[in-house]
Amino acid sequence: MHDLRQKIAAGSCHFPLMISSSRAAIGELNVLSPYDERRLGCVETSGPAHVEDALASAYALHRDRSAWPSVPERIAILDRTAVLMEEQADDLALLATSEGGKPLTDSIVEVTRAIDGVRLCVESLRGHPGRVIPLGTTPATTGRIAHTQKEPIGVVVAVSAFNHPLNLIIHQVGPAIAAGCPVIVKPAADTPLSCLQFVTLLRQAGLPDAWCQAIVTDDQDTAEKLVTDRRLGFFSFIGSARVGWMLRSKLAPGVRCALEHGGVAPAILTADCDQDLALQAILKGGFYHAGQVCVSVQRVFAPRTMASEFATSLASAAARLRVGDPADASTEVGPLIRKAEVERIGAWVNEAVAAGGTLLCGGKSLSDTCYAPTVILDPPADARVSIEEIFGPVVCVFSYDNVNDAVDIANSLPTAFQAAVFSRDIDQAMALVRNLDASAVMINDHTAFRDDVMPFAGLRESGLGTGGIPYTLEDMQIEKMTVIKTPKLD
After folding, report:
1. This prediction's pTM
2. Do 201 and 118 contact (CB within 8 A), yes or no?
3. Is residue 487 part of a domain?
4. Same domain, yes or no: 322 and 278
């Protein structure tokens, strides 16, 4: 049994302050399992003075160009980190499952992706060269040549979410390391352990401590101080739209940012679609991680002639999903991240059913921490389950008479992210792709499909900028141009 696994079992995972500060911690935060509230460990917390120390050290690093790690050094550190992660893969999966509640089978996939993501940072760094600028094409530019080179944008502050406690950190921290940016990462308070363990591995791989600092703040005011400082070069945020847009409004002038929020992902079924394929895809895309995914299938639009039958089949399959302890290899749906989420989701479902939606399965809590996978047929158009991100194990099926009406309803919300179309008719499928408001449309697959090389972008209120490791690396670099004037080119 590995040391990390022993600590998880004993509830003794402990992380001290991981910032460049000699100050004592403000306090400690106990980290609990969302399934049974078992104590997993604790992390030391920071206050405003710690934030100042962390920012000052990161900014000083960036300003000292002689201290920037070379590209070969960055590549070697990331390569060694991936190897260390492979050696601890099983323990990292158990850690992510224990603190986040995602079933172990899915956390194993997350860790595999995270390791590949670290390696993708290296590949992306090697594939992000500068450019030759075509001067000399006009009389005013003769005798000149120009080229660009990439440089780090500055201090990166990354604020992350709970639902993928390791892989989201990879997407925010990995590109910063690759770009040569000092980075300060603030994990979700519910799930800090995977982040802190990853930072530990980076340091074991040779990254100097000050180049990647992790901070768990004592309160939101302290976190806001971290985000709104003028010394930032780039702010990366994954979380709720309410918090993301608020923080963006308070960024110092000149600070670049990327925001990743959520949506109310639509899937449109056409009359000729493969219903069995659609059912299995939506079952996974809707109930994966108990629906706590920003592109989870929430709204399914089906022709009226098949909607009830499809919804009933989906409900039958959803009712058979095994809900329970996420560390049990047979569990398919784990807990919600907090008890309050179980109560909130129950209130939304009850409201939709009371207003006329047909409850086909679920609609109840199974414990203080788990909610039954739920399918609702034709909830009211103005119900919260129809227009707001539920972030829970609830899928709504809506009947339509005309597919264009389904598209109009799918496009009617202030959020827009990923969508799906199920059809055997490629012409109709491509027409729907064109008409849907989405940054990505999956044909014959669920809305939550993602590979880490893909662009990942919320539109409208769903976010700002483009995620995905190669795109984040691009955001965290500047392109500096050099122009050389020489008479030898006249």
Report:
1. 0.95
2. no
3. no
4. yes
